[in-house]
Design brief:
This protein is mostly helical. The protein has helices at about 5-20, 25-35, 45-60, 70-100, 110-120, 125-135, 140-165, 180-190, 195-215, 220-230, 240-260, 270-290, 300-310, 315-325, 330-355, 355-360, 395-405, 420-425, 440-445, 460-475, 490-495, 505-524, and strands spanning about 390, 410-415, 430-435, 455, 480-485, 500-505. The chain has two domains: about 5-365, Na+/H+ antiporter like fold (Up-down Bundle), CATH 1.20.1530; about 380-524, Rossmann fold, CATH 3.40.50.
Length: about 525
Amino acid sequence: MEPAFFIYAFVGGLLAMAVRLPPLAGFLVAGFALNAMGYEMTPELTTIANLGVTLLLFTIGLKLNVRSLLQPVVWGSATAHMVLSSALFLGVLIGLKALGLRLLQDNDWSSMLVLGFALSFSSTVFAVKVLEDRSETSSLYGRIAIGVLIMQDIFAVLFLTASTGQLPSVWALGLLLLIPLAPLIRHLMNRLGHGEMQVLFGFLVALVLGYQLFEWVGVKGDLGALVVGMLLAPHKAAASLARALFNIKELFLVGFFLSIGLLALPTWEHLGVALLIMLVLPLKTVLFMLIFPQFRLRARTTVLATLSLSNFSEFGLIVAALALAQGWLSADWLVILSLAVALSFVVVSILNVFSERLYRRIRPLLPEAPAGRLHPHDRPVELGDAQAIVLGMGKIGRGAYQRLEKHYGLRVLGIDNNESTVERWRAQGFRLLEGDAVDSDFWEKILLSEGIQLVLLAMPHHAGNVFALEQLKGRKFAGKVAAIVEYPDETKPLQKLGADAVFYVYEEAGLALADSVMAASKEA
């Protein structure tokens, strides 16, 4: 592996962070800089990039509720957008050909339709990376965005199969045996613990049972990794496995973002056409903005889901590569599309940093449906007679909930943005509501009563806790606010904002352990 790949990736990520952009924007720019210096893709970087994408899809599957794909808002919006955006880009390309764009003069309407189809995809890697950075993969808009992306991936697999004329092997029917085998595989997870065997198991099922097995029978391997992840998702250790793979997956994805810039060396003509295509990207965004409200989503859910999907996709490059092999497109278009994908990543990563601000700016222009007509998971939250609220019902949040309820006798309400978490713990007697505390509308639709004495911020994402505290203080909340932090340097920002108490997770766990040991020794 070229040392320059590591150096430029690190410097690019560092510079992006310095200007408050996601590191992935820096990785993309680093790829273009390496390309300009004469570096090319290497087999090692290709392998790392492919591993990153495969592990990403596997971890998506681990968190995915299959029922979400069956919701009309997912398959309906994905299908409508795919059809309309393909037609839209076809119309634009026909118009550019009529205006004399040289690179389109040899293309007929069918090849331009393939090009429009390639541009209609949104990037799974990019969108999930943005959602994970915010800890919002389980929020309503995050679930919808991921569902749409998976439907697009399915459309792509169907297209690739139909275009090559190579049907999957007859042995592909044997993949159905994975369904009855899934309980046995999940049972094995119980014996692995949380160390290196768990990580090794993740690689084994993602890369062998998922990717390679599906490739052997003529089905796209990345889809196999996703499917196997979905089969393991019901297991209680699925979230733990996803966390164990998180840092490895993130490192491999650096290779993916570098590879986008290294795909080909563009000319000024290529760059000019790519910029023309970028001018059409807002039309793709507008389509999402028009389609999502038809499924009774609120304005904020529509805006944030749209921003997550308003980019071009690496899957479009796969479609273009196939079209090149079939003689439908020239090699120029693969270079142009790679430029358009990279540029869209940079632009949309900036927009997503300011997504809440953008939403608040355009909110007065957006129509809002009456609460009674909204999607069931997008309706206002009522707190009832709660005296304490716990925001974030992970392990720490649940522990705090039980302590406040049993030891202090408070009426506690838990709020979490993960539908599965809410359903699971509500079935065990917890009072839970689904809600997104980093939603600016959440604090307006929630009915804070005078009976609330305490709000505990126990969300896994520090920025979410900071945002929630800003909203509480901005609304003159009279009760106490406490927060949990995972790293010591996160304490001061919360204290400056006025948190009454901030607890460092590991320090408090140590104190509690010491107290328990001393109490037990006295009793003995």
